Amino acid sequence: MATLFRALVLLLTLTDLFVGTLSLGVGINYGQIANNLPSPSRVALLLRSLNISRVKLYDADPNVLSAFSNTNVDFIIGLGNEYLLTMTDSSKAQTWIGQHVQPYLSQTKITCIVVGNEVLSGNDTQLMSYLLPAMQTVHDVLGNLGLNKQVYVTTAHSLAILGSSFPPSSGTFREDLAQYIQPMLNFHFQANSPFLINAYPYFAYKDNPGQVSLAYALFQPNPGMIDPNTNLKYDNMLYAQIDAVYSAIKAMGHTDVKVKISETGWPSKGDVNEAGATPENAGLYNGNLLQRIEAQQGTPANPSVAIDIYVFALFNEDLKPGPASERNYGLYYPDGTPVYNIGVQGYLPHIDYSFAKKNVRNSASTF
What we know:
Elements: H1 2-13, E1 27-29, H2 40-49, E2 54-56, H3 62-67, E3 74-79, H4 84-87, H5 90-100, E4 109-117, H6 125-144, E5 152-158, E6 162-164, E7 172-173, H7 178-191, E8 195-198, H8 201-207, H9 214-217, E9 225-226, E10 233-234, H10 237-251, E11 259-264, H11 279-294, E12 309-311, E13 345-351, E14 360-366
Parallel strand pairs: 1-2, 1-12, 2-3, 3-4, 4-5, 5-8, 8-11, 11-12
Antiparallel strand pairs: 6-7, 9-10, 13-14
Helix pairs in contact: 5-6, 6-7
């Protein structure tokens, strides 16, 4: 126990040795579809060592929220799609908030509730019809409790809601989704909440590696592309995707809703038919992305608005269904070691998570 205590104290006192890239605003998605992850209290130490102060959950796990008490980490919590119908009932929404939000607010910074994930790109029109009423109800309940300025409400979308994305200035939403998106944009404006997009240049490359430039997808040097309508030059796909969403929002009459990236990342491993899923490419994508976040860059169409991004994901998650790539988006293995080098060097804990040893071994790592 004494060894564990000394190791943790040493870890915390060496926080200032870390390169500060990650402290400048990048967020991290903390998924937990796995059976081998470290405890939330150890995750809190890891994130503190990296100066990561923004975390996005896919639920409202009380163990995580308690473990991060008094850490000054901003949390986005999630309401899964299975809750949408329930959340259209104000009394049930108030009960949920009373159980999953209010008890933690005094010590854990919950700043956002994401109601549903990628609902509009699915096939369930009934679920789509519940989405905005659920968002409105949760927002109204927060307002009644005096919390709507402290905790904002939104939902997350995939890029599949776009009908057109190229060139970026011609971005539009799918016509069949207009009936849902138009009133949702009105809600975002009135509630002053952002429009969240899960954007993955990897998917575009994987689906068409012969036509999509890998360098363009990875923020590597490349000729780029010129938007013929604006003459703006894009040197990477993610910025083009973001501006296409802004254009689609503008086409619906709004220039007053901010776009944030709730997920982006690159897998370090995939099946044989998943082109580009390698540790080298994942390291380039996330490393180059962090450099641009550090520089507080905006996109070509919105140069004064710094990109706001949550990287997917903190850990590899071994129980996620689907192709191999789905289980290999993590920056870290569950034992606390980096999956690849993204150019941020510092003193990181190497944690032995076995129940038998219960000790911490410290090592200098490059992340």
